[in-house]
Design a protein that fits this description.
The protein has 395 residues and is an alpha/beta fold. 44% of the residues lie in helices and 8% in strands. The protein is globular. The relative contact order is 0.15.
């Protein structure tokens, strides 16, 4: 079952962390999605067509951004990024101090476990330990099945966040038929940065840390917004026609045709995941450039497909007067797509619904736990996202 992931805006090979982020998606798609769906992970081909090189170019290297080159953070960049994630977790919880034990009692042990591994996936050493994180997350799900509310997680007063992690790891290590990747679980090693981050989450941030985080957030939002708009404008300008597709369409279409050709007896399903503008590009291909392509599962995440349709940006002529009744009229189901899921987060201002515009699509809300800064890219950074997605795909 080939899986094709089409990235969205703001992705450039030259950016720090690009390859690490792609490797994380590859591991999570393999371990947390393909495996639990019953696919042979060794035979599942996962591809990442890259179109970022044809995206927007800034002639003055984004010198138009306010504050460029003058903002200074009190923290190191890596720590500031982590603290930005932790601050968003605080905002999501509605409190400056987030305790995993309190969270277990209030929302459930499963939510606390998800927060542990979602935090692990955001820490500074995550890129070197992505296989361990994925395996540990899967192991924690097995532990959850037989221990949905362990006494140690529900204690009053609660354990500290570091103690909570220690107890969780003890439970995972005691599981029968453990994953070989988890044979060495030294908390002084790869998991230490996660424990430290969760310890910070369990205490109120200082004023200096809050100021530094807000400074980074403002800069981050401005940078991402400019690239978002730029990539959209470039795609629309250079989209091309059915007879002469543009370079971005050609890159993605080539990957989709390669994946389709890779299907074989017993492994003949094609899953396409399109993030952000990647979802728009995939939909455009399946309805205009190559409507003959057959897709078993299309997943658009944090995407703008419905918005583009409402603004008539796909360049096709809808039936006369469409829609005569916006409350009822829907564009006909795409016969080339067996199942289409559209995922959005209400905190993600760049994500939009599709169910009220198209037949044959199911809108699904997913709470990334991030604020407006990181919500748009936060879906695929969280192991818990893949768990929820695979449940829907299995249905």
């Amino acid at each position: 079952m080939p899986i094709v992931f089409v990235h969205g805006v703001n992705n450039r090979k030259e950016d720090a962390g690009f390859l690490d982020d792609q490797a994380r998606k590859q591991e999570y798609l393999k371990t947390l999605l393909a495996g639990p769906l019953g696919l042979d992970v060794e035979k599942t081909a996962i591809s990442f067509p890259y179109w970022g090189g044809d995206g927007v170019k800034f002639l003055w290297n984004q010198a138009s951004l306010p504050g460029g080159g003058v903002e200074a953070l009190a923290l190191g960049q890596a720590n500031a990024e982590i603290d930005l994630r932790l601050q968003e977790a605080r905002e999501q919880a509605g409190t400056d101090i987030v305790n995993l034990g309190d969270l277990s009692r209030a929302k459930g042990f499963a939510d606390a476990v998800d927060l542990v591994w979602d935090t692990a996936s955001a820490t500074s050493n995550a890129s070197q330990n992505v296989e361990r994180i994925a395996a540990a997350y899967e192991a924690s799900q097995r532990y959850l099945q037989s221990n949905p509310a362990p006494a140690w997680a529900m204690k009053t007063p609660p354990l500290s966040n570091a103690e909570f992690v220690d107890e969780l790891m003890k439970g995972i290590e005691a599981l029968p038929d453990g994953d070989p990747k988890l044979e060495t679980l030294s908390l002084s090693g790869w998991l230490q940065s996660t424990r430290e981050a969760l310890a910070r989450l369990g205490s109120a941030p200082s004023d200096a840390m809050t100021a530094a985080t807000l400074s980074l957030a403002r800069r981050s939002m401005h940078t991402k917004a400019s690239r978002f708009l730029g990539d959209v404008f470039v795609y629309l300008k250079n989209r091309g026609t059915a007879a002469a597709p543009g370079s971005i369409v050609n890159e993605v279409l080539g990957a989709l045709r390669t994946a389709e050709a890779a299907k074989k007896a017993g492994d003949d399903k094609l899953i396409i995941i399109g993030h952000s503008l990647g979802g728009v590009i995939v939909y455009d291909i399946l309805t205009y450039f190559a409507p003959e392509l057959k897709v078993d599962r299309l997943v658009t995440v944090g995407s703008q497909v419905g918005l583009f349709e409402e603004m008539s940006l796909f360049g096709r002529v809808l039936p006369a007067g469409m829609p005569t009744d916006p409350k009822k009229d829907r564009i006909s189901r795409n016969p080339s797509v067996a199942v289409w899921l559209n995922v959005f987060d209400t905190n993600d201002v760049f994500s939009f619904c599709a169910e009220a515009i198209y037949q044959g699509v199911k809108d699904l809300q997913y709470d990334t736990g991030y604020g407006m800064i990181d919500a748009h890219g936060g879906y695929f950074a969280r192991p818990s996202f893949y768990k929820r997605l695979r449940i829907r795909l299995a249905q």
